[in-house]
Design brief:
The chain contains 10 helices and 12 strands. The chain has about 270 residues and is of the alpha/beta class. It has a domain of about 120 residues: Alpha-Beta Complex (Glutamyl-tRNA Synthetase, domain 3), CATH 3.90.800. Strand 6 and strand 7 form a beta hairpin. Bound molecules: glutamic acid.
């Protein structure tokens, strides 16, 4: 069994991450498997090297152990570009130049973009492409349905031994390559789970509604569909999860104020409410 812990270095780790790490590393340990560490730092606008360094330090201090080297996604952008090329060649993605504001004008409050059927935009897109403008690339749910036929509605994955239907279209034609970074969390994450032989994806419930989309991508790309285990989240108050941006106390500062690793691990486990 191979699991992975895949934090994004957009801030210092907090107690929610400690719970997530315990779930991923513990899941592997209980089964005699291995938990990998992956740094999901494709977003150059938000990720910082000092946060990556702090992830290594915090996890090491907490006593977690992973095979070296950790995979650092920013060093593999060419691989995600190749995966995107495969999808382009098969007509499964299309270029899109709409800004958020334009999309809002087109579809009002509905923030799920359901494809170019809404507005015929192919002429304008072709002109921009010819002028060398860089588009975002969106997954075409319509093309995915064509490619998979009846299999599309039967997509599923296993969680705790039960087969769960994969609701693949719920987010519409999602962006698989942002114009500023050339890829996306969805593409890089599913690519790496396949490349790294991850058999069990252990991650928070906040990501559960993306799993159907990830199963669709795996199926389109011919990648294996791992089992999933979505764990509870550590909540500050009911309904409000901890966040790096919310300024919640970092593990780094707990460490620096003299707390022990055992105390921090206990706090993460005791704090869970769901
Ligand atoms: N990098 C993601 C995060 O920090 C987790 C991705 C995943 O586990 O699939 O929220």
């Amino acid at each position: 069994m191979i699991t992975r812990f895949a934090p994004s270095p957009t801030g210092y780790l907090h107690l929610g991450h400690v719970l997530a790490a315990q779930r991923a590393f513990g899941f592997a340990k209980d089964a005699g498997g291995t938990c990998l560490l992956r740094i999901e730092d494709i977003d150059r606008t938000r990720c910082r090297p000092d946060y990556t360094r702090a992830i290594y330090e915090d996890l090491d201090w907490l006593g977690f152990d992973w095979p070296l080297p950790a995979r650092v996604q920013s060093a593999h952008l060419g691989e995600y570009a190749s995966a995107l090329d495969t999808l382009k060649a098969r007509g499964l993605v299309y270029p899109c130049f709409f800004t958020r504001r334009e999309l809002a004008d087109i579809q009002g409050d509905d923030d799920v973009y359901r494809g170019p059927g809404i507005v015929p935009d192919s002429g304008a897109v072709a002109a921009k492409m010819a002028a060398g403008e860089v588009p975002a690339w969106r997954l075409s749910i319509a093309a995915a349905k064509d490619a998979l036929g009846a299999k599309f509605d039967a997509l599923s994955y296993f969680e705790k031994g039960a087969r769960v239907p994969a609701n693949a279209a719920v987010h519409g034609d999602v962006i698989l390559a942002r114009k500023d970074i050339g890829t996306s969390y969805h593409l890089a994450c599913t690519h790496d789970d396949a490349l790294q032989g991850v058999t069990h994806v252990v991650r928070g419930r906040d990501l559960e509604d993306l799993t159907g989309l990830h199963v669709l991508l795996q199926t389109l790309m011919g990648w294996p569909v791992p089992d999933y285990h979505h764990h509870e989240l550590l909540m500050k108050t009911a309904g409000e999860k901890l966040s790096k941006r919310g300024g919640d106390t970092s593990i780094k500062s707990m460490r620096e104020t003299g707390m022990t690793a055992a105390q921090v691990l206990d706090m993460a486990m005791a704090g869970q409410i769901a």
